[in-house]
């Protein structure tokens, strides 16, 4: 199985949570990994798992990375599950409807994350329009945003955006972000992809 | 070998100073107005003292250097763009006289690579230019050893001034202007740091690398270049939230040359600090090779020049 989604996930995030044997796929059921970002409050994990079982997903393992806090103070959780391929989108949709931040779903869909830093007159050039255009043009999901405007919002400010994009589309995505940046006279600090960066 | 050195700046002087240690003899050294020429070997120490004391380096004219008996011309005059003169003409004259040329001057190799190679093909002399890329770091000889065809990409940090500024900005949470002033006080940045901070200096080096990979075809105008002048301290703070930092990274392939500020992992190989340089060479069969070291400085660059001299065929 060349494009088994379970296979590519580790390399994307570099976490060693899904090592071990490849799960058996039986009767069209396949294994998927979703990465979630949860608020550190009691009951959140249970709330996040409910949409999976309610939509016919079978939980295989849950890796709850307590102590490993994301920049916004959230807790990353990695869930391995199996389900028929046609149900997977429903599960991800149900998670999002429940207000759970899905940062990675499977390996084929939104398999990569990239961060970019934008610098310039972000507010004057309408940051929210910039971000929606990036999401639309690149077919990405904005996962995380920080803005720093130490000299006020009409001065030069910086924003860091973390985006989930489809596997293998980072070059294309960066090209589109570059185009939007140059149109709005923003400096785009791109990640360095490839090699042992 | 008998060396004739054009340019008596940090690099030219250091080459003269270290030549005897490498078993070579200096028969001429010239700055833009005067020259010291002696076919039986100049008194290097006295000549350098004169230069440092703002006296003429010698009684001869710079032209006279070409008339003396030498084996290798060391081209260490300042880098110029576009027609890369007078470095290009110096190199041409030496090759036409069937002499070897070792360049520390980036101009001719970045801007007129094809012409240089054509002149070399007609000459009994050879050209080498290890010192133009990454100072003391053996970048070009590593590519030569892996054969250029097997190298797919060369990337890295090849400007110490820009790297110093970004490192200090990230570490101290200071803004660009402040750190630049500090770098100038420390002598890390020149009074006019434009070429370093706008990416031109790094771009010239990556253009040279692209020329080596593709056997010519590139000049500065083919490179996509962005500098670090627009990067505020807050951008580095934001990058750090994600465990990243910003470095002025260059990339050369057979198709393109690009230099610009990029996000790299804070503890990754490319996030060298201070004035240190690093080069990663991606190869087809041997993965990635990396070397890091001092990319500038008189004695450092002179070691690259003298290694080149050692690699030349005897005339």
From TrEMBL, chain B:
SUPFAM superfamilies noted in UniProt? Glyceraldehyde-3-phosphate dehydrogenase-like, C-terminal domain (SSF55347), NAD(P)-binding Rossmann-fold domains (SSF51735)
GO molecular function ontology, one term from the record: homoserine dehydrogenase activity
Tell me the keywords, alphabetical order.
Answer: NADP, Oxidoreductase
For the protein in the UniProt heading, the enzyme class is: oxidoreductase
Q: Which positions are catalytic residues?
A: 205 (proton donor)
Q: Where is this region: Disordered?
A: 288-315
User: Which InterPro entries does the record associate with it?
Assistant: Glu/Leu/Phe/Val/Trp_DH_C, HDH_cat, HDH_CS, HDH_short, NAD(P)-bd_dom_sf
User: Which Pfam families does the annotation name?
Assistant: ELFV_dehydrog, Homoserine_dh
- Gene3D superfamilies noted in UniProt: Dihydrodipicolinate Reductase, domain 2, NAD(P)-binding Rossmann-like Domain
Provide the E.C. number(s) assigned to this enzyme: 1.1.1.3
Specify which residues bind NADP(+) according to the UniProt entry for this protein. 7-12
Enumerate the residues binding L-homoserine. Answer: 190
Which residue numbers delimit the Homoserine dehydrogenase catalytic domain? 138-309
The UniProt record lists the Glutamate/phenylalanine/leucine/valine/L-tryptophan dehydrogenase C-terminal domain at 2-58
Q: Example GO biological process term?
A: threonine biosynthetic process
Q: Which PROSITE patterns match?
A: HOMOSER_DHGENASE
Q: Where does NADPH bind?
A: 106
Q: Which NCBIfam families match?
A: PRK06349.1 (NF004976)
Name the family: Belongs to the homoserine dehydrogenase family.
Report what the protein is called. Answer: homoserine dehydrogenase
Protein species of origin? Natrarchaeobius halalkaliphilus
């Amino acid at each position: 199985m060349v494009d088994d989604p379970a296979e590519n996930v580790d390399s994307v995030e570099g976490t060693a949570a899904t090592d071990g044997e490849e799960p058996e796929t039986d009767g069209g059921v396949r294994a998927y990994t979703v990465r979630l970002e949860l608020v550190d409050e009691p009951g959140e994990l249970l709330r996040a798992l409910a949409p999976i079982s309610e939509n016919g997903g079978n939980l295989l393992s849950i890796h709850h990375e307590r102590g490993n806090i994301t920049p916004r103070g959230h807790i990353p959780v990695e869930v391995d599950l199996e389900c028929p391929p046609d149900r997977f989108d429903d599960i991800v949709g149900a998670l999002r409807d429940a207000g759970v931040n899905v940062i990675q779903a499977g390996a084929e869909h939104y398999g990569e994350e990239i961060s970019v830093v934008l610098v310039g007159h972000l507010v004057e050039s309408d940051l929210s329009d910039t971000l929606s255009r990036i999401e639309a043009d690149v077919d990405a999901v904005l996962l995380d945003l920080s803005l720093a405007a130490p000299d006020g919002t009409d001065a030069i400010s910086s924003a860091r955006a973390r985006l989930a994009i489809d596997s293998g589309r980072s070059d294309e995505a960066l090209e589109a972000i570059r185009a939007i940046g140059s149109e709005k006279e923003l400096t785009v600090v791109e990640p360095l992809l490839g090699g042992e960066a | 070998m008998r060396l004739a050195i054009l340019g008596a700046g940090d690099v030219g002087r250091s080459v003269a100073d270290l030549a005897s240690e490498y078993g070579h003899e200096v028969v001429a050294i010239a700055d833009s107005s005067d020259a010291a020429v002696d076919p039986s070997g100049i008194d290097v120490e006295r000549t350098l003292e004169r230069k440092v004391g703002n006296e003429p380096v010698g009684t001869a004219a710079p032209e006279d250097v070409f008339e003396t008996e030498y084996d290798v011309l060391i081209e260490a005059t300042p880098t110029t763009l576009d027609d890369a003169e007078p470095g290009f003409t110096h190199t041409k004259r030496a090759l036409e006289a069937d002499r070897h040329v070792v360049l520390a001057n980036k101009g001719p190799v970045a801007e007129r690579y094809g012409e240089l190679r054509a002149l070399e093909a007609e000459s009994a002399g050879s050209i080498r230019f290890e010192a133009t890329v990454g100072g003391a770091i053996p970048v070009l000889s590593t590519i030569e050893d892996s054969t250029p065809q097997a190298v797919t990409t060369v990337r890295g940090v090849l400007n110490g001034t820009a790297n110093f500024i970004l490192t200090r900005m990230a570490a101290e949470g200071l803004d660009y202007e402040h750190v630049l002033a500090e770098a100038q006080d420390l002598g890390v940045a020149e009074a006019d740091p434009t070429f370093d901070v706008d990416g031109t200096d790094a771009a010239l080096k990556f253009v040279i690398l692209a020329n080596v990979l593709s056997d010519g075809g590139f000049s500065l105008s083919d490179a996509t270049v962005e500098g670090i002048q627009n990067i505020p301290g807050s951008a580095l703070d934001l990058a750090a939230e994600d465990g990243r930092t910003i470095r002025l990274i260059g990339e050369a392939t057979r198709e393109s040359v690009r230099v610009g500020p990029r996000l790299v992992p804070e503890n990754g190989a490319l996030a060298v600090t201070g004035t240190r340089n690093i080069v990663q060479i991606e190869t087809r069969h041997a993965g990635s090779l990396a070397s890091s070291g001092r990319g500038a400085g008189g004695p450092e660059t002179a070691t690259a020049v003298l290694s080149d001299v050692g690699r030349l065929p005897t005339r």
